[in-house]
Design brief:
This protein has about 475 residues and is of the alpha/beta class. Helix 13 links the parallel strand 16 and strand 17. The longest helix has 18 residues. The protein is elongated.
């Protein structure tokens, strides 16, 4: 007799001619469990130095960051002010790992959002072990460059001068003129083409201390992504959790462009929160830096374990809110729904929200919900218990024996309806993996979507899984001749 597997759509079809169907299913399930155990990932980070990239707007800081990390990660566009927060990236050169901080453009006497961006650049300089000042060699030293140099001298950190946009030998004279800034020999670099970047990186690694003054946390803190439409309060919430102005906050929608990571200790436990760019439209409809910002938001979500999905409680639930929730559920992350700006909600709006929650949020009816006011910090302390509950549901594993006892009782009380004179049976079940909980059912026929939803609902009633999506896959036995 022969056995084989065929992948068809979302289901894997189990083909067997062996008479002992249950034993075959049990053996296949055991193999799945072994694969799941072998695939467990343990996260830990080492102790890295921190390098801050600072300079005026539009001198090529983000382009230099992309050159150093070797991929197009930082959002780049040919206009100033695209980068607004300080954004951390993991980098390595000559076997030495370090953390790279990209910052927004620094301007003297800045006002409004530009002042907030400059403040983030100053914080990055204070955090760093090494500071790289990027200057546009084609423009030369400006008053803003000289002001940054004066600020750097007060930090007493090693400072390297990068003369960017030196694309050929003719630009060497422009770079040499930057000796006047008093930071020593400028490194002539073309961040766009890579010219001279190796010498700059050698100098960065040589200037790094043995262990960074702000060493990265070890033990793999759990990653929480803040996602939602623009201007729903993601950056305000991050600042409340951090207890400082970690992210630039502005009434202008779309202020955050790059994902902003922050390690935050709450009640003795360290979490990594990631503020992401607001998603205002489909990727195919976005353009310019907004297109790359949406892609980076999705990448940040894929790296996260849980998503705090923020919704503006003062506005009707929109199609874009639904689309973002679908994206989060499809990614398999744990979910906590956060209704922000609750201070703007009156009694009528509360009743309307409850109706919307029952009708429009059925796809995440299992997600915990918290009502907060991020701007003032009201109820923000309630988030951590809900996050812990959702992550516990995301990590839950059901013993195979207990699962099959549950399935046997369920099928006996509520068998699958007859279809075409046949009634598919569940031979065996196993939980193939966690994060999210994924169950594989070995059956004699296809289980309809309504019956699979029924099984999921009863699984949640019996075992919890609060805050986590649950996936059910089928392996269907088909008999055929040799």
């Amino acid at each position: 007799m022969t056995e084989e597997y065929r992948e068809v759509g979302d289901a894997a079809w189990f083909v067997a001619e062996d008479a002992d169907e249950v034993e075959a299913a049990r053996a296949a399930a055991a193999a799945l469990a072994d694969e799941a155990e072998d695939g467990e990932e343990l996260g830990a980070s080492g102790s890295h130095g921190i390098v801050a990239i600072v300079g005026r707007p539009n001198v090529g800081k983000s382009t230099l960051v992309n050159r150093i990390i070797g991929r197009r990660e930082a959002v780049v566009e040919d206009r100033p002010g695209v980068t607004r927060d300080r954004v951390a990236y993991d980098a390595e050169w000559a076997g030495v790992p370090f953390t790279l901080l990209d910052t927004g453009g620094y301007e003297v006497r800045a006002q409004g959002m530009a002042a907030l961006i400059a403040e983030q650049a100053e914080v990055a300089m204070a955090m760093a072990d090494v500071v790289v000042l990027v200057v546009d060699a084609t423009v030369g030293a400006t008053n803003d460059d000289e002001a940054v140099v004066r600020l750097m001298r007060r930090t007493r950190k090693p400072v390297l001068l990068c003369a960017n946009k030196v694309d050929d030998a003719r630009g060497e004279a422009d770079a040499a003129a930057l000796w006047a800034l008093g930071l020593g020999e400028p490194f002539a670099v073309s961040a766009l083409h890579g010219r001279g970047s190796g010498e700059l990186l050698d100098a960065i690694v040589a200037a790094l201390p043995g262990e960074g003054a702000h060493a990265a946390q070890t033990g793999g803190p759990r990653r929480i992504a803040l996602v939602g439409k623009p201007n729903v309060g993601k950056s305000s919430l991050l600042n409340q959790l951090a207890g400082e102005h970690r992210a630039v906050v502005s009434p202008v929608a779309g202020t955050t462009v790059d994902p902003v990571d922050e390690l935050i200790e709450i009640d003795g436990r360290v979490w990594r929160f990631v503020d992401t760019a607001g998603i205002r439209r489909r990727v195919a409809e976005a353009s310019g830096h907004e297109y790359f910002a949406v892609l980076r938001t999705r990448a940040a979500l894929e790296k996260a374990e849980l998503a705090l999905v923020l919704v503006d409680a003062g506005e009707p639930l929109s199609e874009q809110d639904q689309r973002i929730l679908s994206m989060v559920v499809d990614s398999g992350r744990a979910v906590v729904l956060v209704f922000n700006k609750w201070d703007l909600v009156d009694d009528d709006r509360r009743r309307e929200l409850e109706r919307q929650y029952e009708l429009d949020l059925q796809q995440v009816h299992w997600a915990p919900r918290v009502n907060i006011v991020a701007a003032t910090g009201r109820n923000v302390q309630r988030l951590i218990p809900q996050i812990e509950r959702a992550l516990a549901g995301w990590d839950t594993r059901i013993p195979t024996g207990r699962l099959n006892q549950f399935l046997g009782e369920l099928v006996a009380a509520h068998p699958h309806p007859l279809r075409g004179g046949r009634q598919p049976r569940i031979l065996f079940g196993t939980q193939a993996s966690t994060r999210p909980p994924t169950f594989v059912l070995f059956t004699t026929g296809f289980l309809e979507a309504g019956y699979r939803r029924f099984i999921e609902r009863r699984l949640r009633e019996e075992f919890g899984f609060e805050g986590s999506p649950v996936r059910i896959q089928l392996r269907i036995r088909e008999k055929r001749s040799r």
